Amino acid sequence: MAKKLFIKTYGCQMNVYDSARMADVLRPLGYAPADSPDGADMVILNTCHIREKAAEKVYSELGRLRRLKDAKESGGDGRMVIAVAGCVAQAEGEEILARAPYVDMVFGPQTYHRLPEMVAQASRAGGAVLDVEFPVEAKFDHLPDHEGPGAASAFLSIQEGCDRFCTFCVVPYTRGSEFSRDAVAIEAEARKLVRAGAREITLLGQNVNAWHGEGTDGRNWRLGRLIRHLAEIDGLDRIRYTTSHPRDMDDELIEAHGAVDKLMPYLHLPVQSGSDRILAAMNRQHTADDYLRIVGKLRHARPDLALSSDFIVGFPGETDADFSATLRLINDVGYAGAYSFKYSARPGTPAAEMEYQLPENVSDERLAGLQQLLGEQEAAFHRTKLGAEFPVLFEKPGRKPGQVAGRSPWMQAVVVEAPETLIGRIADCRVVEVGAHSLHGEIMETSIGDESGAERICA
Ligand code: 5AD
Ligand code: SF4
């Protein structure tokens, strides 16, 4: 009988990708994914260290898991291996084992290809396994293939780590320095995903537009060239990439937004702050004007481009004037969506040592103001789509029976009344109603062809 594997994923899409690959590595050892930790033979927490709150969640979850482990093991029901993976494991490996000695395995984002050895070692008992190295061998060269049918929209990790060293950020320490996979390996994985049913691929990286590598012509490529190359894959209809740094937004990539139809008109381009003083203290290496210029060029290349961003409020030393500059930038850009966070001092980062750490209540107030404005912009963006017609990629059943849910080119959730056979396909839809979090659409007659017209359904 298959052993039950439960993986809980925190944080970013890179972790979502990593969790899926961990399941791939464990499958040959007889582990099959389960949707609850109850009675599981192995539970992996794939963790996030980006803000204090994210890291704290791990310890409270571990407390709950300990009770499940005790119940299983004292009931004579075999062992429950508990593993902590991801960025908290990388940053706090020893501390996790000291605070939660019932944890059996701790491993970072760069070593999960070694899971078979770790599992063997953990089963020999005699203490926990800790592997938080940055190994010389590339993890990607040691991962098995994905198996079975995949989702209509898939993630593909092409770049990891970061050399930008924003002063607030732990990523350069937990994920290590920048690494780009080869174009050949990326293309091969993209083709496999498409064969397994993916119509959309999101290229992932902590600083994805810093990607560079040897292309199939032997030349050094950057991301714009890679996207043009992947766009030639038949059956792949949509390409996205995330997360980008404004400084790595080169002209070739900007041009790709105009030239490659398959590159979707939605871009997550974090700016963090609109104040040049704070941007400098964050070591972002660009000004607010630089950012606006890049946005201008992108919109020139692709007029229907929608943008989203990350913002941090309450960075050390942020004044009311700095915060107003952020609100001004938001008004100048007009975002379709955004994530905003209260600054969280992370151990080991330069900003944690800076003077003038702000009181909570000031940050709370600014965050509320920022989110109000961003919420209004997001709602206004959704409203512009009322009555609009565009292709939707359907990914899953809707919440109500008889509905299917998909995504617009701008990442909006779209719900329509249609049979589940639409899942995995792209159909033209018209928006009939705009809700707070999703658009309600109807399938356009012209997109429902006969059998031979199945491809007509594609965008
Ligand atoms: N405090 C608050 N937000 C942070 N982020 C990264 N580090 C911190 C921190 N120390 C945010 C940034 C980044 C997103 C992934 O998380 O906005 O873009
Ligand atoms: Fe962190 Fe800055 Fe690198 Fe993004 S670009 S991962 S915020 S250091």
**What is the multimeric organization of the chains shown?**
single chain
Number of domains: 3
Kindly report the average pLDDT value. 93
Supply the CATH superfamily name of the largest domain: tm_1862 like domain
Largest sheet: 6 strands, parallel
Bound molecules: 5'-deoxyadenosine, iron/sulfur cluster
Radius of gyration from CA coordinates: 23 Å
How much of the sequence lies in strands comes to: 15-25%
Number of strands: 21
How far from one another are the termini?
43 Å
Which second-level CATH architecture of the largest domain applies? Alpha-Beta Horseshoe
The helix/strand class is alpha/beta
Helix content: 25-40%
How does the overall form come out from the CA principal axes? globular
How many individual helices? 12
Detail the poorly predicted runs.
449-459
CATH C-level category of the largest domain: Alpha Beta
